[in-house]
Specification:
About 45% of the residues lie in helices and about 15% in strands. By secondary structure, it is an alpha/beta fold. It has a domain of about 180 residues: 3-Layer(aba) Sandwich (Rossmann fold), CATH 3.40.50. A seven-stranded mixed beta sheet has the order 1-3-2-4-5-6-7, sandwiched between helices. The chain starts with 7 loop residues before the first strand and ends with a helix. Helix 3 links the parallel strand 4 and strand 5. The chain has eleven helices and seven strands.
Length: about 260
Amino acid sequence: MRGAELAYEDSGGGGPAVLLIHGLGGSLYGWRAQVRALAAGGYRAIAHDQRGAGLSEAAGVLSVEGWAEDAVALLDALGVERAALVGHSMGCMVAERAALALGERCWALALCGGRAEWPEKAGEVFEQRAALARAGRLDEVAEAVAHGGISERGREEQPALWGLMVASVAAKDPEVHAESALATGRGSMADLAALACPVLAFAGSEDAVTPPEAAEEIAAAAPAGEAAVVEGAAHWCMLESPERVNGLLAEFLKRHRPA
């Protein structure tokens, strides 16, 4: 895709396609519970490592706009005519831009833990994250990501999930992660009011990074938007509460599933 090879997982089948797009620090494996549930529900579930993440190459300049182009190009390469898009965190900005580019080819858009744009001082946070990665302190970044990604209760009840999140982020390439963080900080959604497809925006009730209020703002700005809350979960709610997230997605996609 634009000079880079992307790793992806495709459940196959003839059902409506759903492309899942991870956020900063994530990978396609963060969607494993959703991929399995969607495939069981008769959908063709596709998840990929965005450029610079997981097993995908990091060629070229990283940006939200570029990641959106990659998402569209991946669907084209797989011969997918129409797809629903599901994004998480920064991946919501990517998914929204890809949905605009796809136009009528995008039949639904679900945004988990997203913001239309980052708060004013968020850029400083991403710059600090990049600086820590370049200083060889990615383990500190990983601890912070896991702390904000899982609720206090989740950390107590699912210590293995906490440990796996820390290990996953700490294992990133420091320079690539730094560039990804800076690209994320520059990102935003493009034009929610221009979306032609139905939109579901949701967040964990304990999400301090992208609180439910941010989901409500997204839903209000989209012509066919609605908001929901995953009770008891934080920013990485699809990992912390996969059954609840799967239920939200199943109900939303069923209502808008193409014939």
